[in-house]
Amino acid sequence: FAAVIAGGTGLSQGTDNTTPLSNRGWEYTTSFAVSRDRDVQDVSIKLGITVVNAIDDQASVPSVFSLRQNYPNPFNANTKISFDLVDKAPVSLEVFNIAGQKIKTLIDGSLNPGHHTILWDGTMDDGQKTASGVYFYKLKANNQSRTMKMVLLK
Fold this sequence. Notes:
Structural class: mainly beta
Distance between the termini: 64 Å
Low-confidence stretches: 1-22
Strand content: over 45%
Order of helices and strands: EEEEEEEEEEE
Number of domains: 2
Mean pLDDT: 79
CATH class of the largest domain: Mainly Beta
Number of helices: 0
C-alpha cells in the first residue's frame, strides 16, 4: 500500500523485502514512516514466518490396511465401499451372497497406496439386479484380507 491516513496519522510503506530463510520458513522485513503532527519516526518491523503444517503426498498414505463399513448400510440402489492400502498391491474386491457364492467382482487389479472408494450398484457380474438380502464383500491385498457384511433392501 502507498499510504494510510486515519485520525490525523499517516502511515506509508518505505521498503519491502521478502527473503526465504529455508524451505520451511521466511523472513519478512518492512519499514514504515509514521508521521503525526509533523513529527516523523521510522519504524521497522521484522516477522519470522514458519510453516507449522504442510500438505505432503506421504501424509495421505495410510499406515494400516483396512476395509470400512459400506455406506449407506442398509442400502437401496447403491452403496460405497471404502478401504485403505499401505503399499501398491494387486487388489481384489468381491461381493458374495449369503450362500458364499461370488456374484460380483468390483476390483481385480493393481492399486496405488491410499484411500479408495468403490461404488456398487447392486448388480451381479452378468448385469442382473440382486435381490434384497445380506451380502458380504471381501478385500484381498498383499496376503491380507478383510470381509464385511452389508444389507440390500429394495
